[in-house]
Amino acid sequence: MLPTRRLFFEIIAQTSANPIALEIEKASGCWLYSSDGKRYFDLIAGVSVSNIGHNNPVVIKAIKEQLDRHMHIMVYGEFIQKPQVFLAEKLCSLLPGDLDSVYYTNSGSEAVEGAIKLARKYTGRYEIISFINGYHGSTIGALSVMGNETLKRAFRPLMPSVKQVEFNKREAFDEISEATACVVIEPIQAEAGVIMPEKDFLGKLRDKCTETGTLLVFDEIQTGFGRTGKFFAMDHYNVTPDIALFAKSFGGGLPLGAFVSSRKIMKSLCSNPALGHITTFGGHPVSCAAGLASIEYIVENHLTEKAGQAGELFRKYLVHNAIKDIRGTGLLMAFELENAETVKKVVSRCIEKGLVTEWFLFNENSIRISPPLTISESEIEEASRILVESIDEV
Ligand code: PLP
C-alpha cells in the first residue's frame, strides 16, 4: 500500500467504513487527477461547492492578491476588513427584501447555529420546527434540526423543543404557533434526494410564519450561487425568508459561511450580552476575497442560466429504462434506480470508468448529479454516456 494511503486509513479519522479513498493530486474545471495518473469527471463538485470549477484562475488570482495584503488579523467584527465588506455588499445586492446584514461563519453548520441563536434571541421564544429528511449539519444545534433519526439517535439528548414535520404537507403548518421561534427549511431538500417543494408550499409557509411572528430560515447552503438555475433557490418561488444561510460554494472553494438577515433582526445579537455570538475565523479575509471573485465569475459568465440549460441537457442525454425518476432543477439533480444495492454497483462502476458520483445521505436509491456549473455540453454528453453504460453493465 502507498504510504499516504496507509496513513490516510491510520491517522485520518474516518467518517465511514468505506470512504471513496481516491488520492487526488490536482483538480481543474470538472476534472480530478489522481496520483496514479488517472483522471475522473467530477459529478459531485465537493457536494455543491465547486460551482465555478476546480482551481478557477480568477479565484486563485484573488486569493494570491489577498495573501499579499493580509491573512487573519483580528477576531471577527473588530477590524474593518475590505474583503468582508465588499463581499457582503455584493451578496446583499443579489438578495431580495431586507436581507441586508451579513454575519460570517466558517461553515454551514455554524451558519445554522448562528441562525438558531439569532431567532431565539430576537423572538424570545425557543421552539423550533424543521423538516423530515432535512440536512443542516453535524454540530449539536444543526443536528437537532436535522430530520433523520438514524443520524441523531446516538447523540441524544439534543436541543429540546425542536420538532420535525413533513416536507410538502400543509398539515405541518399546524405545528407552527406564537411559541415558535423559527422554522428551518431547505427550499429544495438536497440530501433527501433533491425533493422540490410543491407549488405554493413555501409561499404558504411564509404566510404562516408572518401570521405567528415566527422567523423563516432558508438553508441555501447547497442550493445557492446558481446551482439550481436561479441565483438562489428562493428566487424560483419569490419567497423571502427572515434569515438566509450560505456556505459550500460561497467561499469559491475556501471555507466560508454566513447567516443573513435584516439589520433590525441582526441588531439583537449586538447587545444583552455584547459579544454573545463571536468567532475567531468567521469571514476570513482570504475566503471572502475568493467568495467575491467567485460570485463575480458566476454573474459575468451567466453560470446561473447555463446551469438551468445544463440540467435540461442531462435530462436529454440521461435516458435508460432502469431510471425510475429524475428530480431537480439546474445542476442539483438526482436520478433514481431500483434500489440502494444497484446504486452502489453503478457508482463503483462509474468510478472504475473515470466518473465520480455518489448517492445521498437520506436517499440511497438515487444518484447525485451536481457537477461544476462550468460543465460543457460535450462533458454532459460524456458523463451521461458513462452513467448509462454503467447502468447497463451492472
Ligand atoms: N445545510 C445543508 C443543506 C448542507 O447540505 C450542509 C452540508 O452538506 C450543511 C448545512 C452543513 O454545512 P457544513 O458541512 O459546511 O457544516
Question: In short, what is this structure?
Answer:
This protein has 394 residues and is α/β, with parallel strands linked by helices. The protein is 37% helix and 16% strand.
Supply database-style keywords:
four-stranded mixed sheet; alpha/beta; 2 domains; Aspartate Aminotransferase, domain 1; Aspartate Aminotransferase, domain 2; seven-stranded mixed sheet; 394 residues; 14 helices; 37% helix; binds pyridoxal-5'-phosphate
Q: Please, could you describe this protein's structure?
A:
The structure is a single chain. With 394 residues, the protein is an alpha/beta fold. Helix content is 37%, strand content 16%. The protein has two domains: 4-55 and 302-393, Aspartate Aminotransferase, domain 1 (Alpha-Beta Complex); 57-300, Aspartate Aminotransferase, domain 2 (3-Layer(aba) Sandwich). It has 14 helices and 14 strands. It has a seven-stranded mixed sheet, sandwiched between helices. A four-stranded mixed sheet has the order 1-2-3-13. Strand 1 and strand 2 form a beta hairpin. Pyridoxal-5'-phosphate is lined by residues 47, 107-109, 112, 135-137, 186, 190-191, 219, 221-222, 247.
How is the secondary structure organized here?
Elements: H1 3-11, E1 24-28, E2 31-34, E3 39-42, H2 45-48, H3 57-69, H4 82-94, E4 101-105, H5 108-123, E5 127-131, H6 140-145, H7 149-152, E6 162-165, E7 180-185, H8 201-212, E8 215-219, H9 234-237, E9 243-246, E10 257-261, H10 263-266, H11 285-300, H12 303-317, E11 325-329, E12 332-336, H13 340-352, E13 355-356, E14 366-369, H14 377-393
Helix pairs in contact: 3-11, 4-11, 12-14, 13-14
Bound molecules: pyridoxal-5'-phosphate (PLP).
